[in-house]
Design goal:
single chain, globular
């Protein structure tokens, strides 16, 4: 059955369908970003996160209680496929390691709740001259940030957030 999923955004779909994006972190922010990217028509996503979905995640995540106890990355891949069956999603249940990526993506997004993970993503993005986006909510969700890095044009993530330390 043909579903005109992108009938309302054909220009965006045309642009995004050829992109390969890596997402590090599959928590509440990562899940929302994945949802938006898939609905926009992104062609390929790699999702990296070491955790399973827990009951306390249900109230703030795109996933539901049906995903409790399952791998976040696998459940988000199912979620993505239900929206856009043409999106290729690669799920990696692991902490971020640059060796996990055989070829550099077009964009890397880090929503991991670890400065160490964000720092590794930052270094990878700078080495490969890949734009990167870092997003996070800190503490009791009282502070949020979105930082984008364009190698050679903007300061790197550690220049912005290095005060957090390792």
């Amino acid at each position: 059955m043909f579903m005109p999923v992108f009938a309302r955004n054909p220009m965006e779909h045309g642009r995004f369908s050829s992109l390969d994006i890596v997402m590090v972190g599959a928590g509440s922010i990562g899940g929302e970003i994945l949802d938006i990217l898939v609905r926009t028509g992104v062609g390929s996503l790699t999702v990296i996160d070491p955790e399973d979905f827990a009951a306390e995640n249900v109230g703030r995540h795109v996933l539901t209680a049906a995903s409790i106890g399952k791998q976040k990355v696998e459940e988000l891949a199912r979620h993505a496929h239900a929206i856009n069956p043409d999106c290729k999603v690669r799920s990696i249940k692991a902490k971020f390691d640059p060796a996990l990526l055989p070829t550099p993506p077009d964009l890397i997004i880090s929503t991991a709740d670890s400065f160490q993970a964000a720092s590794l993503v930052n270094g990878y993005a700078l080495r490969h001259k890949i734009p990167a986006v870092f997003g996070g909510v800190w503490g009791e969700a009282s502070v949020a940030e979105i930082i984008y890095v364009i190698p050679g044009k903007t300061p790197c993530y550690e220049c912005y957030a290095g005060f957090r330390g390792h």
